[in-house]
Amino acid sequence: MQDRPRRLRRTPALRAMTREVHLSPAQFIHPIFVHERDDEQPISTMPGVSRHSVQGAVEQAREALSLGVPSVILFGIPDHKDAVGTQAYAPEGVVQRATRAIKAQVPGVTVITDTCLCEYTDHGHCGPLCEVPGQTGGDAWTVDNDPSLDLLARTAVSQAQAGADVVAPSAMMDGMVAAIRTALDDAGFVHIPVMSYAVKYASAYYGPFREAAGSAPSVGHRATYQMDPAGGHREALREARLDVAQGADTLMVKPALAYLDVLKLLRDEFELPVVAYNVSGEYALVKAAAQLGFMDERRTVLETLTSMRRAGADAIITYHALDAARWLREATA
């Protein structure tokens, strides 16, 4: 007797009935760039994405919730930057103000705050810099790890005080999860989860984000602290295990699409929820191809997000969140 798997693909109803992977707006996290101005500024490298005022961020959160997307993640772009990223942990920093406004006006939205310094430093790195003895060129400067931990911890506490539901440290500093967990607990925020960017690569896919956030490094490069794309599975597991031991509540893989093998590895190895970050470069590639008529944007986006779910992502940070939510709603209307 001949096997005929096609029998279960014959109609839309049969295909829907036998799917193993399901995509829902509830799994999406909508990223919002917030600046200190009153206008909306389109980001040239990310068609359809803008920098928003604080009130604009509120409206973005409101729209997300209306589409069934329950979570947003905030990235701040301050007017003033300095060597130590002071505005990251300032009580009246732009993310702190946006967090308070969203929680006051759209209380049903889960607010996640990116806990890093790169958008706030005048050199574009994720902490204060130090010179590396004996090194030249791009390796001559790097982030001074241990002094950065205190600044990241102060940032996390400041964000929690503003009402953040989740803090998401992304600096890839050794010991950052432990420092943040301890600081949150000491400040009375034992209930605030830490969504760690546990496995974050020094990737070319971040280019559009750096234009959006004004965070391109002016000296050195991030390869001295972000992971080598060719580092392999052992390094990914080591980083994730360290964050689990230090108290992370969820683990993230960034970028997602080029690292689905790593996403699957973490899903199989750990019981914690795993988040995929569908990053700016992945978004921009699809947008550019769609604008040129080379690809069907809707089908490509939904297929891409489904691949991340299939690899094991429990949630996906994606700039496609609102469009994808609309498309999924239309499909079930």
Automatic annotation (TrEMBL):
<keyword id="KW-0627">Porphyrin biosynthesis</keyword>
<dbReference type="InterPro" id="IPR013785">
    <property type="entry name" value="Aldolase_TIM"/>
</dbReference>
<dbReference type="GO" id="GO:0004655">
    <property type="term" value="F:porphobilinogen synthase activity"/>
</dbReference>
<protein>
    <recommendedName>
        <fullName>Delta-aminolevulinic acid dehydratase</fullName>
        <ecNumber>4.2.1.24</ecNumber>
    </recommendedName>
</protein>
<comment type="similarity">
    <text>Belongs to the ALAD family.</text>
</comment>
<keyword id="KW-0350">Heme biosynthesis</keyword>
<dbReference type="Pfam" id="PF00490">
    <property type="entry name" value="ALAD"/>
</dbReference>
<dbReference type="InterPro" id="IPR001731">
    <property type="entry name" value="ALAD"/>
</dbReference>
<keyword id="KW-0456">Lyase</keyword>
<comment type="subunit">
    <text>Homooctamer.</text>
</comment>
<dbReference type="InterPro" id="IPR030656">
    <property type="entry name" value="ALAD_AS"/>
</dbReference>
<comment type="pathway">
    <text>Porphyrin-containing compound metabolism; protoporphyrin-IX biosynthesis; coproporphyrinogen-III from 5-aminolevulinate: step 1/4.</text>
</comment>
